[in-house]
Write a structure and sequence with these properties.
Length: 429
């Protein structure tokens, strides 16, 4: 087994050894199997930011990969290893904005990174910034130094920073990055806030149903023992369900945990993620919100990349991976190949059948006028407004729907418990 290394194409000076610790620290390792052009079987490990990057490097080495999977991280027995190195999105926005301000003010990059690390309230971000500062001090560009921490800085983020460094406008690029991150964060907060109240209502109502079935209904059982087979069918169903849950509670809990773990493993696979996306997009209104949110991410990301000087082929690749939808990513991958062959961007987007005609026409107008970045930004603003309206409609639909469904469930239980009493009263009368 041999180990390959992913070296960024645009990293020019200073030249670096492939064992650069700054570059490969914290990067995921992918295990691959494939064949060389001579037909020999090859397998090994490769450093990359994701599977697409790993496949790209293998193609450059004349290796056709048949399988690529991420190598699991080594298991540590320490408690500290259980913590995931994550940085809150708000902290990343604040850092990007502050770094843009310092660079614009003429503060040296290394000094700016050290200052922000020293005053950061997030311990994870503080450690990462100190590490990035060490890499910059050793002569590495900021973009490649950030690439060593893919758990915090996405390929889109790194690509824009590298483009800003290449054209000598790092402060402007960082400002655009901060604005894009802020808009994306606000949009995600709106989507989550719209779903919080319905989820709280659902959890509370399900908890009430559980209490009724597990503890309240069994108290009525002895009252109905004299009825025998004469119990109304709703009452018999509710009593049997309550008895089953009480006698098999551990089995049901274990089954629930097992199903949850199984679903978690399935959703880690490509097939599971694709099927989950398919089902979510089929849900009325919610699927529309998810799709339009992905369109906002794609158009705003591509606009920022093009405005920062990133070539359109690389911009399509980065924007597709940050859209959040596999359908869009696959369509953009085909569009990338078409653009590489000399075609316009609007034609493959229209042919994919994924993008709305309005988006493709706006892209066509942007290409013809030479202002594709500005046009995409306007498209993102427009769809963001539509997402806000759809979120209000979704919230207005979900709340009464949950109340009606749970009201029917609780009402059925209450009626089932009182039916024998009503029957008894009619017999006595």
């Amino acid at each position: 087994m041999h180990r390959s290394y992913l070296v960024p194409e645009r990293c020019s000076a200073p030249a670096r050894d492939t064992n650069d610790v700054c570059f490969f620290r914290n990067m995921p390792v992918f295990v691959y199997h494939g064949q060389s052009r001579q037909g020999r079987r090859r397998r090994g490990e490769i450093f990359a930011t994701d599977r697409q990057d790993a496949a790209r490097v293998l193609r450059k080495q004349d290796i056709v990969a048949t399988s690529i999977r991420e190598k699991p991280a080594p298991v540590s027995l320490t408690l500290f290893s259980l913590r995931t190195r994550r940085v809150k999105p708000r902290e990343l926005v604040v850092f990007t904005l502050q770094l843009a301000t310092l660079v614009k003010a003429g503060v040296p990059l290394l000094q700016g990174l050290t200052t922000l690390a020293r005053h950061s309230s997030d311990s994870t971000l503080r450690d990462i910034l100190y590490d990035v500062g060490k890499c910059v001090k050793s002569g590495n560009p900021l973009g490649s130094s950030l690439r060593a921490h893919p758990e915090v800085f996405s390929p889109w983020y790194v690509g824009m920073v590298e483009a800003g460094e290449a054209i000598g406008a790092l402060d402007v690029t960082l400002q655009r990055l901060a604005d894009s991150l802020e808009k994306r964060l606000n949009l995600m907060h709106q989507v989550r806030a719209a779903l919080v109240y319905p989820l709280v209502v659902l959890v509370v109502a399900l908890s009430m149903l559980t209490v009724l079935v597990m503890w309240v209904i069994p108290m009525f059982g002895p009252l109905f023992t004299d009825f025998g087979d004469a119990l109304p069918w709703p009452t018999a169903v509710v009593l049997q369900a309550s008895a089953f849950m009480n006698s098999h509670i551990l089995l049901l809990l274990g089954l629930g945990v097992g199903v949850g773990l199984l679903l978690k493993q399935i959703l880690r696979t490509d097939w599971g993620q694709a099927y989950q996306e398919y089902l979510l997009l089929k849900v009325p209104l919610m699927g529309t919100v998810l799709f339009k949110t992905a369109l906002v991410h794609f158009t705003r990301t591509l606009s920022g990349l093009l405005r920062s000087g990133v070539p359109i082929l690389e911009g399509l690749s980065l924007a597709g991976r940050t859209s959040g939808l596999r359908r869009l990513e696959h369509a953009l991958r085909d569009a990338q190949r078409s653009v590489g062959e000399g075609h316009s961007l609007a034609d493959p987007l229209l042919a994919s059948g994924v993008f709305p005609p309005f988006v493709t026409e706006m892209v066509r107008v942007g290409e013809s006028t030479g202002a594709l970045d500005t046009t995409l930004e306007k498209v993102a603003d427009l769809y963001e407004q539509e997402v806000n309206r759809d979120i209000l409609s979704l919230t207005a639909l979900i709340e009464p729907l949950i109340i009606v469904v749970l009201g029917i469930g609780i009402g059925f239980i209450v009626v089932a418990m009182y039916l024998p009493i009503f029957n008894m009263a009619s017999v006595v009368g």
